[in-house]
Amino acid sequence: MGRDDDLVVETCITRTLPPALTLEHGLQSIKQAVEELKFNPPCASSGVLRFQVAVPPSAKALNWFCSQPESSAVFPMFFLSKETISPTCKSLYLNKVRGVFGIGAAISFTSSICIPGGLSSTKRFLSNDSVLMSTYGFLDINFNTDLSSVKHKAGSFYFFIPLIELDEHEDISILAATLVWSDSCLCTFEQAIHSYESALYQVLIIFHTLQCVVF
């Protein structure tokens, strides 16, 4: 639970699902878990729910990122390599250091929009129970109100927690989905579900379109 003068996050839970045999099975496992949640929604008016499942290391974040459409209705999409010494694309295919793919924003923190209080508001949604959750984003970047363009502005920032994330380690990959809601100042639980489903729909469509792609 996180607390400050403006907002109380009533629940912050990470649920680990049984390991999946493939990335597709992992997606279906998370989809089923969220479907069950829709029929038994939490009573809390604000919170963070994270579902995660281990998938085989053959699931490659870079491949998943590259297969997404260039014009996407889901914002943002990103790929980050964890390699810090002589980074190359080739290294991602040698089962050494891997990367992170993320799509959509469960919640975003900026200096001007979305969450009042700016960067300090991140602590409301990242408690001791969410140590596996990471934020990604940019410093000195300012988005316009509809997120269609950016410009450099010192002191500005845009950080977010992805809706869907594939985090590759050397021996395993972790697929995760995160739902964040707050009836008072962010979005309702139903709106959080809708945003997650939009991101999931896109990755599933791409996955089934590219049936022969090996992740």
Automatic annotation (TrEMBL):
Domain of life from the UniProt record: Eukaryota
Name of the protein: Protein PHYLLO, chloroplastic
GO biological process, one term: phylloquinone biosynthetic process
InterPro entries registered for this protein in UniProt: MenF-like
GO molecular function: isochorismate synthase activity
Recorded GO CC terms: plastid
